[in-house]
Design goal:
19% strand, 547 residues, six-stranded antiparallel β-sheet, alpha+beta, 17 helices
């Protein structure tokens, strides 16, 4: 359906003859595409002698004088000619190689009704004789990781310059176009996103509006790694919080924890309170209004975890709520505070413990269970019937070390797709990733893994590795669905956003991005469990361990 809509849109956008006029947005859209293609494909551009952002600005300044298809193609041809000669290279035969993952790759736009045959042929020639040494992208410290380099950094004060705003949009759009492994997983076609944002970035009147547009742009990836925050965005959402945490369930905001329980008691805010309205506006209406700013790989993570600043926050010291408790609906006014006011309870997390002297429980929190703990921990738990590993958190990267106690030999945990830096936009399948070590006497009991919406990125990958253990059982609810290392993008000053930079799949090719990792036994979150402070996931794990 998405492809059919894109084809229809393309027909509408590109239905013109040589003499027909072209809108300003169409010209900017095509310029963005050509500029990005030349940035990552043209050998002379990748020698690093040109300020490529300035080249884009100079070309955009010429667009008002362009009125027809022929004139636009001529502008691009002259631009390409000015860059210098491209030497012809020996032809390659990449398309016959089955190592490629090509769900993201599409250069078919090179031939469209807006471009003359001469221009299309020229762009195709550049593709065939592209650079093999990118100037703006380099390999990262690990296999498959990449980094953006040699990019000018703009200042926040330049927000009022239309050209700088458009350069920022176009640069980000092309980075996603060529190097985002999960572009094919978006709800919307990435080309449609460019069409949507060009007029918005062109017509900004206030600095806060610009920041919110960037926030909306990064959220459009539907990637839990991707978000953008500045002081102006905080001001828009509201810098004052109620002292309670919440999740959205059944279109209600359910109180499920506290930033400061003493302040919550002052206004009698209780676990399980179901807030229906905030300042007389239904909670879910507020969520839907702000959803475009809430990044998240799936609906569950957006509602359960990522909406935390967008429902109750505001600029005033109080807020009125309508809430349901014990079957009764009431109204009251509760206080809001700056975040620095809160004094959260200082609870030291347990590293591991025995339950009924029969089962082990391990809290896999980073800086809690570390590599130096593993020998003592596994010695303490070696005779238990089962070990419950809690991954509802972010763990240390001790995958091989821990699995060395749990598996007899290394096993295949995942496959990855990584950017082909010799052919931007294409991705290559890696060999299966082996995890673990050789151990003739691994742990003999059951292994149970706990997951929920707090299980993200490294935690998701760690659970995939733990799922190689024979008979392991994964219990919980949908994870965040953002699996793979992050790639940062700087918009201005030190204000950065991130994307998932490496595609991660199960060894059989099953996806993890957006859908989360595989769960054997699902345990939904309920209002009753929150109200009763019942850890239903852990209780289910103990039940399974007893079996």
């Amino acid at each position: 359906m998405k492809k059919a809509l894109l084809i229809l849109l393309s027909i509408i956008l590109f239905s013109c003859n040589d003499s027909q006029s072209i809108t300003e947005n169409q010209k900017l859209y095509l310029t963005a595409k050509v500029w990005g293609f030349l940035k990552y494909y043209h050998p002379v551009v990748n020698q690093g002698q040109l300020n490529w952002d300035n080249e884009l600005i100079a070309t955009m300044r010429k667009l008002p004088e362009v009125n027809t298809k022929q004139e636009l193609s001529q502008l691009y041809l002259e631009w390409i000619e000015s860059l210098g000669k491209i030497e012809e290279v020996e032809k390659r035969d990449e398309y016959s190689n089955d190592k490629y993952f090509d769900e993201n790759f599409n250069l078919s736009w090179i031939r469209n009704d807006f471009f003359t045959n001469e221009l299309s042929d020229r762009l195709h020639y550049i593709e065939q004789n592209r650079t093999q040494n990118l100037h703006f992208i380099t390999k990262g410290y690990d296999i498959g990781q990449i980094e953006m380099i040699n990019e000018p950094i703009y200042s926040a004060s330049q927000w009022s310059d239309t050209n700088i705003r458009l350069v920022t949009l176009i640069k980000y759009w092309n980075m996603i176009e060529y190097f985002y492994p999960y572009k094919y997983k978006m709800d919307n076609e990435w080309d449609d996103i460019l069409h949507y944002f060009i007029p918005k970035f062109s017509d900004v009147n206030k600095e806060m509006e610009y920041h919110l547009l960037i926030c909306e742009l990064t959220a459009a990836l539907f990637d839990s790694h991707s978000f953008f925050i500045t002081d102006l965005i905080r001001e828009y959402a509201g810098n004052k919080f109620i002292p309670a945490k919440f999740s959205i369930l059944n279109k209600k905001a359910i109180i499920n924890g506290f930033y400061d329980d003493s302040l919550a008691r002052l206004d009698d805010i209780r676990l399980g309170d179901a807030v229906l309205q905030v300042n007389n506006i239904p909670v879910y209406d507020i969520f839907l209004k702000n959803k475009k700013y809430i990044g998240g790989s799936n609906e569950s993570i957006m509602e359960l975890g990522h909406a935390w600043r967008w429902i109750f926050n505001g600029a005033t010291d109080t807020v009125n709520i309508t809430f349901e408790r014990d079957g009764l609906v009431k109204n009251k006014t509760i206080r809001r505070y700056t975040y620095s006011t809160f004094k959260p309870a200082n609870i030291q997390p347990v590293k591991w413990k025995k339950i009924n002297n029969t089962f082990g429980y391990v809290f896999m929190e980073e800086d809690v269970v570390m590599e130096e703990d593993l020998s003592t921990m596994m010695e303490d738990l070696k005779d238990t019937k089962a070990i419950i590993f809690d991954f509802r958190t972010y763990p240390e990267f001790i995958i091989d070390e821990l699995l060395g106690y749990l598996n007899a030999e290394p096993r295949e945990a995942a496959m990855a797709i990584i950017s082909d830096l010799t052919y931007p936009g294409r991705f290559i399948w890696t060999e299966p990733v082996l995890v673990g070590k050789y151990n003739p006497s691994p742990y003999k009991g059951k292994v149970i893994l706990l997951v929920n919406d707090d299980t993200q990125s490294r935690s998701e990958y760690f659970v995939m590795a733990m799922q190689t253990i024979d008979g392991s059982i994964t219990i919980g609810r949908q994870t965040s669905g953002a699996d793979g290392d992050v790639l940062p993008f700087s918009f201005f000053d030190d204000k950065t956003s991130w994307i998932t930079g490496r595609g991660i799949f199960y060894p059989d090719g099953k996806e993890t991005q957006r859908v989360g990792i595989h769960i054997d036994i699902e345990v939904p979150l309920t209002i009753e469990d929150i109200r009763d402070e019942k850890d239903a996931i852990l209780l289910k794990a103990i039940e399974i361990a007893n079996q």
